[in-house]
Design a protein that fits this description.
The chain is α/β, with parallel strands linked by helices. The protein is built from 11 helices and 15 strands. A 7-stranded mixed sheet has the order 5-10-3-13-14-4-15, sandwiched between helices. The chain has a two-stranded antiparallel sheet with strand order 1-2. Helix 7 runs antiparallel to helix 8.
Length: about 450
């Protein structure tokens, strides 16, 4: 006998030994037949912040016209399929990334203040101090509703000590999320570790034992929950069965790619071969694997809040997969050199291409009569405008997603000079159901965003 839809909880997991796989949003999670169909358990709003370092080639970023009739410039052109879901926000400023008497250190200050709006204390010691970041303001209010209050992800490791930028601790230039003014939250960069955290069960050591057993017996994590999944599918309607099958297939595909990455050792810059770590050799694949798991985390409501650092501030990563052997940071100090300009904008576009891949994944996931992208608001940007000038005004900022129908997207909006970036975050917190009077150097909510 098929169970009624009300028998399926939003907090339902498929369970096996060392495994707990949360379910995606299903129609069967709606209230019972007595409730109105419009009062169904609506998908929740999600929030994410993507960071890219070293500024942007702004000449190929800012649209020529404001309003809805704008064309996307070269760097942003991969986002054309999502133009109606997009807000290009020009004129926003990160004042607390400026020196204010502290001298050099723009990279460290840019990243530390990007989500906090607070001036980082200039120190290379243990006495670091900044401010709580917008993601953690939200997580402290609604994080208890999900398995993970927030996810901190990235593709370059976090360093909590040492001098990385003109007397500023490495903690500033490699962490974007701050739980408190003295506690940055390090990001996870290993896709395998993220996968086990999302779908494993128990302590870290118990999850590792489970993984080693699966590897030894060549088992998929889905094999461990097969019986539970089969039982659940028998209680679902056709659309939900298909949705669950697509979701489990996505998990298996990520697992396959992780196994492939484990078999391919990484070529280090020094030319030596490192042991397999689960991190793909190709940077683009690394980004895509991480964003695919963020999609699954949002889809299964494991978290509603995330930060994603594509590369640390001041990163001198090379981009050989797009035929750029020079370091990114070195190129960003272009001095007006046309050849360097061309390479910078190709790096910028490469980053946007990976971001577009992530948005496409979000848009492919249906949630009722909307998509997962419709239920998101996602910031993409940098705390530096032009990498050569190290300016912190007129920053490259995007806001993507409909925020459950609350945002007026498909526009290029230009704000008055010196408008604080943190004003955007006040508006986002308000839409997220976490109204906040002030964040860092904010002066009020940003206009023209909401319906």
């Amino acid at each position: 006998m098929r169970l009624p839809p009300t028998a399926i909880s939003r907090r339902r997991f498929l369970r096996g030994v060392g495994t707990a796989i949360a379910l995606p949003w299903l129609e069967a999670m709606a209230p019972g037949p007595i409730a109105s169909a419009n009062a169904a358990a609506r998908p929740p709003l999600r929030m994410a912040f993507f960071y890219v370092p070293n500024g942007i080639h702004m000449q190929d970023w800012i649209p020529a016209v404001e309003g809805t009739q704008f064309e996307l410039p070269y760097i942003l052109r991969p986002l054309e399929p999502f133009q109606k879901d997009l807000l290009v926000l020009s004129g926003l400023t990160l004042d607390k990334a400026r020196p204010h008497g502290d001298g050099p250190g723009d990279h460290a200050r840019a990243m530390a203040s990007f989500l906090t709006g607070v001036q980082a204390k200039k120190t290379a010691g243990a006495d670091i101090r900044c401010g709580i970041s917008v993601d953690q303001v939200a997580a402290q209010k609604v994080g208890q509703l999900t398995r993970f209050p927030s996810l901190e992800l990235g593709c370059e490791g976090s360093r909590q000590a040492g001098n990385c930028d003109s007397g500023y601790s490495c903690a500033y230039s490699s962490n974007i999320s701050w739980r408190s003014e003295t506690t940055p939250l390090p990001k996870e960069i290993n896709p395998r570790a993220v996968f086990e955290r999302l779908f494993g069960h128990g302590t870290p050591s118990e999850r590792e034992v489970s993984r080693l057993k699966r590897d030894h017996y060549k088992k998929s994590i889905l094999d461990l929950v097969a019986e539970d999944a089969k039982s659940l599918q028998g209680s679902l309607g056709g659309p939900d069965r298909r949705k669950l099958e697509e979701y489990l297939t996505s998990i298996r595909e990520i697992e396959r790619r992780l196994q492939e990455a484990d078999r391919k050792p990484i070529q280090t810059p020094a030319g030596s071969i490192s042991a397999p770590t689960g991190i793909p050799a190709q940077f683009g694949e690394h980004i895509r694997l991480m964003t695919d798991m963020l999609v699954l985390a949002f889809q299964a409501d494991l978290t509603r809040i995330s930060t994603f650092v594509i590369a640390n501030e001041g990163s001198n990563r090379t981009y050989r997969e797009i035929q750029i052997p020079e370091g990114h940071h070195d190129l960003s100090h272009h001095g007006g050199n046309k050849e360097k300009h061309e390479k910078i904008k190709r790096i910028n576009r490469f980053h946007i291409e990976q971001f577009a891949y992530f948005l496409g994944k979000l848009k492919s996931v249906r949630e009722g009569d909307t998509t997962l992208l419709d239920q998101c608001m996602i910031v993409y940007g940098s705390g530096i405008g032009d990498g050569n000038r190290h300016n912190h005004d007129n920053l490259p900022i995007l806001l993507v997603g409909q925020a459950c129908g609350k945002l007026r997207t498909g526009k290029h909006l230009r704000y008055p000079k010196e408008t604080p970036l943190t004003n955007l975050y006040l508006s986002m917190l308000d839409l997220f159901g976490v109204p906040t009077e002030k964040l860092g150097d904010s002066t009020g909510k940003l206009q023209y965003l909401s319906l």
